[in-house]
Design brief:
Layout: H1 3-8, H2 18-22, H3 25-28, H4 37-40, H5 43-58, E1 62-66, H6 71-86, E2 101-105, H7 117-121, E3 126-130, H8 132-138, E4 146-149, E5 161-164, H9 170-180, E6 186-191, H10 193-204, E7 213-218, H11 225-232, E8 238-240, H12 250-263, E9 267-269, E10 281-285, H13 287-304, E11 313-314, E12 319-323, H14 325-331, E13 342-343
Helix pairs in contact: 6-13
């Protein structure tokens, strides 16, 4: 449900080739000067031999394929590496040898690589794919276990793929809101049935002790936004912004922020990016812990293999709450520091 992060994860990047990392022609070619034509004819064979000899160096226990240097991907990688490298050596059908991990940044690879990266991945004991592009690249792997995360577009993957879900259950989000904003008793939500209908049903069936009222109002292109918001004025303590393109469109978001300030109703967002324009709080993913969770899943697979009790999708373990204290104080909304994981600091702020 955290569309801000999800939309950011669909971006790409650019870079250089993995072939250059192993065999830079610019460094090899001076060695060839002075050789006669018969020796030069052997160059292709020498090149193939060097590449073939390089294969074992990549046939390591874990290969981590990262789509690009996006901040969420970097955070997940750091979380993964910290936990993976700290895991005790395992024995089993896919045993870990020294808990090594080789990172490959997919955005730095070119389609004209000197050898097939996919073939190198087939020699790994475990592949970890971070981001949609990485998952797309490895989706044809069948024999190697693949753990993937931060890939909102991933779907219809083989049985050897184990993922961390890009979704936080409404009950867990409400529990986080309750802990951070204990005085909030009623929450208003505009929603599009086609986009968020199932989520709304789950939310209604997942009451939290302090949240006594969830006021849902249907919203679509025919809905009068001022009228819908006016019905909420005086009836709710907070407004919950859902990841719906209609509701996050600039004009609609501007009206929501104006409503928030006028009626002193904090906006609880699904993404940190809405804190800058004026949302009071964001309930979102903990990407570092998602990386750590992926490492623990990978270690379990390395120890026990792909047993039937590992579900194909696992929900994220943690929810991250980021507060905008400036907005909360301006609105006069009390908050509990113990329920806040981080605070928003404006660019250039201290």
């Amino acid at each position: 449900m955290q569309e801000g992060l999800i939309s950011a994860l669909r971006n790409g990047a650019q870079g250089s080739t993995i072939y250059d990392r192993l065999f830079r022609v610019g460094k090899i070619s001076p060695f060839l000067y002075g050789f006669d034509a018969s020796v030069k004819k052997c160059v292709p064979l020498i090149t193939m031999l060097l590449v073939a000899l390089a294969v074992p160096a990549w046939a390591l226990d874990c290969v981590l394929l990262q789509s690009s240097p996006l901040k969420p991907y970097e955070e997940a990688r750091q979380g993964f590496e910290k936990v993976w490298l700290a895991q005790p050596s395992a024995t089993g059908p896919k045993s870990i040898s020294g808990n090594t991990v080789t990172q490959i940044l997919l955005s730095e690879q070119q389609t004209t690589s000197g050898f097939s990266l996919k073939k190198q991945l087939q020699n790994a004991r475990l592949v970890v794919a971070i981001g949609d592009q990485a998952v797309e690249f490895v989706k044809d792997l069948r024999e190697v276990p693949v753990v993937y995360l931060l890939a909102p577009s991933a779907a219809f993957l083989p049985k050897n793929f184990i993922g961390i879900e890009m979704r936080i259950q409404p009950s867990r989000q409400m529990a986080a809101i309750n802990k951070a904003l204990p005085k909030v008793r009623s929450i208003g939500v505009l929603y599009n049935p086609g986009q968020s209908g199932q989520w709304v049903q789950e939310a209604l069936l997942s009451p939290v002790a302090s949240v006594q009222t969830l006021l849902f109002k249907k919203f679509d292109s025919q809905t009068s936004l001022p009228g819908a918001l006016q019905e909420m004025a005086g009836a709710v303590d907070a407004y919950w912004l859902l990841p719906d393109p209609q509701l996050t469109a600039p004009q609609v978001l501007g009206s929501l922020l104006e409503f928030s300030m006028k009626h002193r109703i904090p906006i609880i967002s699904f993404s940190e990016k809405y804190l800058a324009p004026g949302a009071a709080m964001a309930v979102t993913f903990d990407t570092v812990d998602m990386g750590a969770q992926a490492a623990e899943l990978g270690a379990r697979i390395a120890r026990d293999g792909l047993s039937g009790d590992i579900p194909p999708l696992t929900p994220p373990r943690k929810v991250r709450v980021v507060a905008n204290p400036t907005v909360l104080e301006r609105l006069g909304v009390p908050y509990a520091p113990k329920g806040i994981d981080a605070t928003y600091i404006p660019e250039g702020g201290r």
